[in-house]
Amino acid sequence: TQLLEQSPQFLSIQEGENLTVYCNSSSVFSSLQWYRQEPGEGPVLLVTVVTGGEVKKLKRLTFQFGDARKDSSLHITAAQPGDTGLYLCAGVDRGSTLGRLYFGRGTQLTVWP
Amino acid sequence: DAGITQSPRYKITETGRQVTLMCHQTWSHSYMFWYRQDLGHGLRLIYYSAAADITDKGEVPDGYVVSRSKTENFPLTLESATRSQTSVYFCASRERPRGSQETQYFGPGTRLLVL
């Protein structure tokens, strides 16, 4: 059972376009993280959103946590080829001391020059 | 160099052989994790460790064994490799949770092919 569903699975766009990636769940998480993974490397944390309704900006990337803390979105403005990569969302479970991460399957983004 | 490293980066083995993947971190992080990444499944937790000599199962532990005799090392052993264990394996580490902003750091991965 996949706790987090990401959409779309693949996204191929031209440089300069805007895009939104969605991360949805029926479960409530204490926080949600977004990672980016480039070919041949491990995922790297981009941001953590904690409060329901929270919005965080990282240059051209805008992250939002849903009011009910079940879903999140990543919006990229004026995408560039350097944004190409696999974007992963991960819900943080505070039900245990581990704070385990539950990952979505990822969105593979390709930005063409 | 500081950080989290994995070895080997690439491994080809045969069905039934024992394989050990190594993970080393220089931050003295309490928590360490092993994930496998497969197309269509994303990252799935195999085993984790909260401290030296403390390990526990994750989502997909069958066929794997871990140990943690030292804080900085967390090897993953496939006791008798099967083709279904062909995957990319990632090790990760993190400090003990103190809030909600902890960063989990991933190694570069080991690409394992079981023939």
Description:
- The complex is a heterodimer of chains A (113) and B (115).
- Chain A is mainly beta and 113 residues long.
- Chain A has no helices and 11 strands.
- Chain B is mostly beta strands.
- The model of chain B has no long low-confidence stretch (mean pLDDT 92).
- The interface between A and B is medium-sized, with 25 and 22 residues.
- Contiguous helical run count of chain A: 0
List low-confidence stretches of chain A.
none
Our estimate of the beta-strand percent of chain A is: over 45%
Report how far apart the termini of chain A are. 37 Å
Q: If you compute it from the alpha carbons, what radius of gyration of chain A comes out, rounded to the nearest whole angstrom?
A: 14 Å
First-residue to last-residue Cα separation of chain B: 33 Å
Mean pLDDT of chain A: 92
Overall spatial form of chain B: globular
**Helix-and-strand structural type of chain B:** mainly beta
Q: What is the global morphology of chain A?
A: globular
The computed structural class of chain A is: mainly beta
What's the helical proportion of residues of chain B? Answer: under 10%
Largest interface: chains, residues each? A-B, 25 and 22 residues
Query: Largest sheet of chain B, described in full?
Result: 7 strands, mixed
Average of per-residue pLDDT values of chain B: 92
Our estimate of the beta-strand percent of chain B is: over 45%
| Number of helices in the DSSP assignment of chain B | 0
* Most strands sheet of chain A: 6 strands, mixed
Q: Sketch the topology of chain B as an H/E string, one letter per element.
A: EEEEEEEEEEE
Return Rg of chain B in Å. Answer: 14 Å
Low-confidence stretches of chain B: none
